């Protein structure tokens, strides 16, 4: 198998593009996809530092690596969720990556802050672990970004994540979620840090190949709480479609982004936000979801 561009030996076959690339041309292609996402969607520029949320998995570490190669100023942010050995290994992968490249890293550990990990916090507040985890992550990404002066938080969500989310939203006809689903989530006039997903043009398989070719050591195990999560069922379904019809994920998600301009011609309205009386962050009431979660979990365990 030869590289379609330079005719050297190919290292990756890409059925969705009906092509194959050598290591050098593959890296050119992947960096270009991220550059296009950043510039076409006006995610950020080189004038301000970007806070990169890094879990220790392949997507977020690949994203950090690519942003450095593209010349962006970055700082990593790792949340240690307090899920036993899984969280310890995840943090160690992030720290090793940052140290090997001399990058700045902010870490925040739930056990150190609350004396509880995400599983205990979720249990005490009678919430599914992933739902509580989402609330906690949103709060800390936003709080740390605003406190430390980062206008933008970049996450490692890829094409598979976005297509699976879209499938889930469509199956339940979650119209408000469909309206908001986007590679860029606005800062709503400075209430939030802007959230961006520079890997949304790339499927998981290509990101995994990038990590292997660049010897990026990431945590391979999935989070233990992801067992039975619907997202994985959606991803498996989309993988089967992709196998039968290469490019299906791309067509599905990018078709949606195009249709969105017709279905929702104006940006979603900025919701009236109350500022939380405890933490000061915006929310739907005077006590935000994060503070309700923490109040309930500490009340149960104290
Ligand atoms: Fe959090 Fe659930 Fe993801 Fe684990 S699987 S990191 S608990 S959202």
Shape category: globular
Radius of gyration: 20 Å
| Heterogens | iron/sulfur cluster
Give me the CATH fold name: Rossmann fold
Structurally, the number of domains stands at: 1
Largest sheet: 6 strands, mixed
Distance between the termini: 63 Å
CATH superfamily: HUPs
The first-level CATH class name: Alpha Beta
| Helix proportion range | 40-55%
Strand line-up in the sheet with most strands = 5-4-3-6-8-7
Structural class: alpha/beta
Residue runs with pLDDT of under 50 for 5 or more positions = none
How big a fraction of the residues is strand? 5-15%
Brief rundown of the structure:
This protein is of the alpha/beta class.
Describe this structure in words.
This protein is α/β, with parallel strands linked by helices. The chain has one domain: HUPs (Rossmann fold), CATH 3.40.50.620. Helix content is 51%, strand content 11%. It has 12 helices and 10 strands. The strands form 3 sheets. A 6-stranded mixed sheet has the order 5-4-3-6-8-7, with helices on both faces. Strands 1-2 form a two-stranded antiparallel ribbon. A two-stranded antiparallel ribbon has the order 9-10. It is globular. Iron/sulfur cluster (SF4) binds next to helix 6.
Detail the topology: elements first, then pairings:
Blueprint: E1 12-14, E2 19-21, H1 23-40, E3 50-53, H2 58-69, E4 74-80, H3 84-101, E5 105-109, H4 110-114, H5 118-124, H6 129-148, E6 152-154, H7 159-171, H8 175-180, E7 184-185, E8 194-196, H9 204-213, H10 230-244, H11 248-263, E9 274-275, E10 282-283, H12 289-301
Parallel strand pairs: 3-4, 3-6, 4-5, 6-8
Antiparallel strand pairs: 1-2, 7-8, 9-10
Helix pairs in contact: 1-9, 2-9, 5-6, 5-12, 7-10, 7-11
The structure holds iron/sulfur cluster.
Iron/sulfur cluster binds at residues 118, 129-130, 133-134, 223, 225-226, 229.
